[in-house]
Amino acid sequence: MTAPAGSLLSAQDLRKAYGPTNALDGAHFSIHPGEVVAVMGPSGSGKSTLLHCLAGIVPPDSGVITYNGRELSAMSDGERSALRRSDFGFVFQFGQLVPELSCVENVALPLRLNGAKRKEAERTALTWMERLEVDDLAKKRPGEVSGGQGQRVAVARSLVTSPRVLFADEPTGALDSLNGERVMQLLTDAARSTNAAVVLVTHEARVAAYSDREIVVRDGKSRDMEPVL
Ligand SMILES: Nc1ncnc2c1ncn2[C@@H]1O[C@H](COP(=O)(O)OP(=O)(O)O)[C@@H](O)[C@H]1O
Ligand SMILES: [Mg+2]
């Protein structure tokens, strides 16, 4: 089994069981550099499990995941976590910002964890906050901003290290449709401007509309959606 030509991240025949539940039951996936792929499917179909496996957070029971020519399973835990810090960015349904830190400190955090000096990290963080139109919130704590603003701060944080893959799990799931649209527009514009690939998990068609391609997951099995011509 080999990775599809030109793909940055791919998975073949992934299986993952939690007790009697087959969360993944032979799922396939591939994404090219700079591509935005929506992973669609009803609740409980295995979307988050697929994302966690692709990101090297959860090991599949079987199957092969290849990132940039390397099999994730052949890496040590340390190599996988270093890869997550250097090459991957993450956005979840609820921003998961650190409440004690200001918004700019939250955005700068991944750079600080990679060893950057505070001033330099915050300068870079601010440029990302400008792109996500939340630079005016730099000094505020997450508790002082709205849900949509907090999610834009979380998107800025996910992109601050210029990851090659952005993993977004229901990034607009907690937002009303207007704020959700704005977050998706800014997220996909920012990702496309840096050629980051985006694995976008959602069960909402209007969110998937921002993708280049859709994959549907049902009962742990995935298939490409036929393009609508
Ligand atoms: N850590 C876990 N422990 C037990 N069951 C789990 C765990 N994670 C997921 N599952 C189960 O696996 C199935 C797929 O879950 P998930 O990947 O979260 O689906 P989705 O993101 O599409 O809603 C569900 O039946 C869920 O209950
Ligand atoms: Mg989920």
| Gap between N and C termini | 31 Å
**Biggest sheet: strand arrangement:** 6-7-8-3-9-10
CATH fourth-tier homologous superfamily: P-loop containing nucleotide triphosphate hydrolases
User: Would you tell me the overall average pLDDT?
Assistant: 94
Give the overall form.
Answer: globular
The amount of beta strand, in percent, is 25-35%
Hetero groups in this structure are: adenosine-5'-diphosphate, magnesium ion
Protein name: ABC transporter ATP-binding protein
GO molecular function: ATP binding
InterPro entries: AAA+_ATPase, ABC_transporter-like_ATP-bd, ABC_transpr_LolD-like, MacB-like_ATP-bd, P-loop_NTPase
Keywords: ATP-binding, Nucleotide-binding, Transport
General description of the model:
34% of the residues lie in helices and 25% in strands. By secondary structure, the chain is α/β, with parallel strands linked by helices. Strand 4 (62-67) and strand 5 form a beta hairpin. Helix 3 (103-113) packs across helix 4, helix 3 (103-113) packs parallel to helix 5 (147-159) and helix 5 packs parallel to helix 6 (177-193). The structure holds adenosine-5'-diphosphate and magnesium ion. Adenosine-5'-diphosphate (ADP) binds at residues 18, 21, 23, 41, 43-49. Residues 9-228 form the ABC transporter domain.
